[in-house]
Write a structure and sequence with these properties.
By secondary structure, this protein is mostly beta strands. The chain contains one helix and 33 strands. The strands form nine sheets. A four-stranded antiparallel β-sheet has the order 5-6-7-8, with no helix packed on it. It has a four-stranded antiparallel β-sheet with strand order 9-10-11-12, with no helix packed on it. It has a four-stranded antiparallel β-sheet with strand order 13-14-15-16, with no helix packed on it.
Length: 341
């Protein structure tokens, strides 16, 4: 039996090369829906899939591990996944068994043993038994990051620790989670960065900012996008009409209505040649999705097509994650893997 499987795998790869392709189906397109849960990715070896208006989970062979039965199903995190049943959310394990019965209005993913949960229009945090660790009292909350969670209470944002005590009292008009010791915060209609004492490291001066990625943060000033370091110094001056965060060392930016990619010095690595929404996402695992003549494929960091544009992904093209990417072909969805020649 093992020899038969090895022979079949070899024939599959040879067939791909014979057709001049450097990809192969990891899971053949057989799913009807164009919506694969939260991100068309496998998480902890399972992917949330929608079939006939219900969600379930498949493994990397495309087999149903948990049959479609939920109104919605999130990715697995720390062995549990949030799912929606009869308009209430709870958590299941990888066998589909309820670990926390569906009783919440909404929940988030578990991170270091706790997850956001909403009840009676207020948010708090629960543990893996469903017990409240931090009672529901907040209007909006984010997950914990760098030991703190960003929360909104009475229209002001602050930060709590894992006991629910305010580490930084609500005082900002808006804020994001901490990453690498800094958080974006808004005051008097301008954005800057604060440290974990709540002091400004980069004074609020930007119209919009993103969190740091690859050591740089995307900022908008006077309707132009650029990138700053953690001291607030402009490493790449605001000059672009549009920009994405850095990923895999490159950032997607637009100039004169065309998209291309720059490095951390602002140098063009892939010249702006893609129009409008033709390049959809940033680089992941050395590849970026790109569009040509209405079809999607993948380019490398030199801008060369490594998987020719032949796919139909109508909503969004997705990025490679753990060697796989969700693809639409002949109105069905499956997953492909890249095969090096």
């Amino acid at each position: 039996m093992q020899k038969v499987l090895l022979y079949f795998a070899l024939i599959t790869q040879i067939s791909a090369f014979a057709q001049g392709k450097n990809w192969e189906w990891a899971i053949k397109p057989k799913f009807e829906s164009s919506h694969f849960g939260l991100g068309y990715y496998f998480s902890e070896d399972l992917a949330s899939i929608k079939q006939k208006e219900k969600y379930g989970y498949i493994d990397k062979k495309g087999k149903w591990v948990i049959k479609p039965q939920f109104e919605y199903a999130d990715d697995f995190s720390e062995g549990l996944a949030a799912v929606l049943k009869n308009d209430k959310e709870g958590f299941i394990d990888k066998t589909g068994k309820w670990v926390i019965e569906p009783k919440f209005e909404s929940v988030g993913a578990f991170y270091k043993g706790i997850a956001q949960a909403k009840k009676n229009c207020k948010w708090g945090f629960i543990d893996k038994t469903g017990k409240w660790v931090i009672e529901p009292q907040f209007d909006i909350i984010n997950s914990f990051s760098d030991g703190l969670a960003c929360v909104e209470q009475n229209s002001k944002w602050g930060f709590i620790d894992t006991t629910g005590i305010y580490h930084i009292k609500p005082q900002f008009d808006d804020a994001t989670n901490f990453y690498d010791g800094l958080a974006a915060a808004k005051q008097n209609d301008k954005w800057g960065f604060i440290d974990k004492t709540g002091n400004w490291v980069v004074e609020p001066q930007f119209d919009i900012i993103n969190s740091f990625s690859d050591g740089l943060a995307k900022v908008r000033l006077n309707n132009k996008w650029g990138f700053v370091d953690k001291t607030g110094k402009c490493i790449i001056e605001p000059q672009f009409k549009g920009a994405f965060d850095f990923s895999d060392g490159l950032a997607r930016v637009t100039q004169n209505g065309k998209w291309g990619f720059i490095d951390r010095n602002g140098k063009w690595i892939i010249q702006p040649t893609f129009a409008g929404n033709e390049v959809a996402f940033t680089f992941s695992e050395g590849m970026a999705t790109a569009k040509q003549n209405g079809k999607w494929g993948f380019i490398d960091k030199t801008g060369v097509w490594i998987i020719q544009p032949e796919f139909e992904n109508s909503q969004f093209p997705y990025s490679f994650s753990n060697g796989l990417v969700a693809i639409k072909k002949n109105n069905k969805w499956g997953f492909i893997r890249y095969v090096k020649k």
